[in-house]
Amino acid sequence: MSRPHLPMRPAWLCWVCAAQWPCSAAQLDLATEFYGHSVARAFYLATSMYEAMDDVYRLGGRPDGPAMYARFLGWLSLTRRPRHRTQ
After folding, report:
1. Distance between CA 60 and CA 64 in Å, rounded?
2. Which of 26, 51, 70, 73 lies deepest, with the highest CB count within 10 Å?
3. 3-state secondary structure of 83
4. Predicted confidence band at 2 (pLDDT cuts at 50, 70, 90)?
5. For residues 73 and 48, what is the distance between their CA atoms, to the nearest angstrom?
6. Which residues contact 46 (CB under 8 A, 6 or more apart)?
7. Does the structure show a pLDDT above 90 at 60?
């Protein structure tokens, strides 16, 4: 069984592949875990983004807001289920 791609704090790198979290494997895992619950997934990732930004501040840095948004939330529209149109 493969290990889950979870964030290593305070660096917010993936424990498994050392890429910025959420890495592509974590994104796939999250899309699967929250399938049908896109609002809950967005809330989870927004909360994670703010925790990551807080960690950057605590480490003495200044987070790049647009980059953090792209990293944590920017990929969400790519994983939304298409709505079925009724005619």
Report:
1. 13
2. 26
3. coil
4. confident
5. 10
6. 72, 73
7. yes
Tokens of residue 14, six digits: 């993936």
63-71 contact pairs (CB < 8 A, 24+): 71/20, 71/22
Q: How far apart are CA 80 and CA 74, in angstroms?
A: 12
Would you call the peptide bond into 10 cis, given omega within 30 degrees of 0 as the criterion? yes
14 SS3 class: strand
Give Cβ neighbours of residue 2 (< 8 Å, ≥ 6 apart): 16
Q: Are 42 and 56 in contact (CB under 8 A)?
A: no
Tens of pLDDT along 6-16? 999 999 999 99
Tokens of 80: 């939304």
Q: Given pLDDT bands bounded at 50, 70 and 90, which one contains residue 77?
A: confident
Contact 53, 63 (CB under 8 A): yes
